[in-house]
Design goal:
By secondary structure, the protein is mainly alpha-helical. 31% of the residues lie in helices and 0% in strands. It is built from one helix and no strands. The radius of gyration is 19 Å and the shape is flat.
Length: 52
């Protein structure tokens, strides 16, 4: 059963990777250059409601 689930997961992954993006660069657009940066998450909480 675990092998079957793993194969389904791999199929889903390849399907996702083959999906074309909805937003496309216009012709001649310069590549995005990221010089430096960071992302910070402060006071972020995740949880499930009880009895779910």
């Amino acid at each position: 059963m675990q092998v079957q689930k793993a194969l389904i997961d791999v199929e889903n992954m390849f399907e996702l990777l083959a999906t074309q993006p909805h937003v496309r660069d216009r012709p001649g657009a310069e590549p995005l250059r990221i010089v430096n940066g960071s992302i910070a998450f402060d006071n972020v909480v995740f949880g499930y409601k009880s009895k779910r």
